[in-house]
Amino acid sequence: MTVLVGSNELLSRIEPLWYQLQAHHRNRFPDDTWQTLFAGGFDRRKGELLACAHVRIIIVARDGQDVGYGIGSISHEIGTIESLWVQPESRQHHIGQRIVENLLTWMEPHTRHQHLAVLVGNEDVLTFYEKFGFSVYATELVRINHTHQ
User: Cα dist. 23→29, 47, 79, 87, 109 in Å?
Assistant: First the structure.
């Protein structure tokens, strides 16, 4: 197993895995709001991450193939796990655990707390994150402005 740790220079490399994550969410999301929330694809997400002052990207490869990634950011003393994806066939190798531990170790000296969002339909990952001390703190409601692109 190979682990790459870097920042925005690794963004292009995670693009195929990011689209796998989006397909996963699309299959679980309860309605067509998904299309609006993720309009603009990877280019939009890449732009959002490039605007963050402090970003850490971790990519894990097995047998020369990228099988998982995680993205963390720090802003105003708050750490955010922006994204985490491990291909289903590689999940038994604790790759997600290693990525989250790495991101939290990077964040903790610089942040008051860390957070992440779990999308509707993906609640089965809550127990995974609880192992790291995360707990449900709030439920966020989103209203989509369909007139704005």
Answer: 10, 20, 26, 12, 34
Report the C-alpha dihedral over residues 93, 94, 96, 98, rounded to 10 degrees.
-120
80 with 13: CB under 8 angstroms? no
What is the predicted pLDDT for the residue at 93? 93
Domains assigned to the chain: 2-130 (3.40.630.30)
User: What pLDDT does 27 receive?
Assistant: 79
CA angle 85, 108, 125 (to 5 degrees): 30
Give the side-chain half-sphere CA count within 13 A for 77.
Answer: 1
Dump pLDDT digits (tens) for 79-126: 999 999 999 999 999 999 999 999 999 999 999 999 999 888 888 999
- C-alpha torsion sign, points 33, 35, 38, 39: negative
Q: What are residue 61's DSSP bridge partners?
A: 2, 66
